[in-house]
Specification:
heterodimer, A: mainly beta, 7-stranded mixed beta sheet, B: mainly beta, 5-stranded mixed beta sheet, globular
Chain lengths: ~110, ~110
Amino acid sequence: DAGVIQSPRHEVTEMGQEVTLRCKPISGHNSLFWYRQTMMRGLELLIYFNNNVPIDDSGMPEDRFSAKMPNASFSTLKIQPSEPRDSAVYFCASTLGNTQYFGPGTRLTVL
Amino acid sequence: DQQVKQNSPSLSVQEGRISILNCDYTNSMFDYFLWYKKYPAEGPTFLISISSIKDKNEDGRFTVFLNKSAKHLSLHIVPSQPGDSAVYFCAPPSAGSYQLTFGKGTKLSVIP
């Protein structure tokens, strides 16, 4: 298995632009998680899905952030409009049980 | 409110010696604990876990100890190797879900 796949690996954009991050979970995993990592706050859970349904989105910072999981093999995290303080590494993880498997992350820089 | 605390942001250890990474938690509902290891520019990878019904779990050079009464975990790496240099996170799942609560991590540097 290729593991969790995220794209793009790096994204540089200007403030105000829309950003879409993509994730393909490990086949057969039924839960998917989006995290954000910053120096100040460490790894924060943004949202997680179980069987494609959003279960807990309390970590989503504000309405500019949205996430979808249209099917079991694909999820997106969208930021619109983006702001410089959104600059971080965004990780996607999937799991079938207690152990989460992480993707390599997307490093987002908002200028 | 930090439910999981890793109070040492960094640790330096000589190659061949023991590395001890600590984790304290406040939520007595946590019943399973995972340690993740993270290299720069990569996602965290699962390292070792322990259930609350045990007080020790060993996997090769890695041993995790759990003291439930003190709400304290420690990860021991012996002997430490330069390839162990990474950030280590303590991450218990919330009861009844697979949602992990991550500590801030401890950056381990193993000096050759």
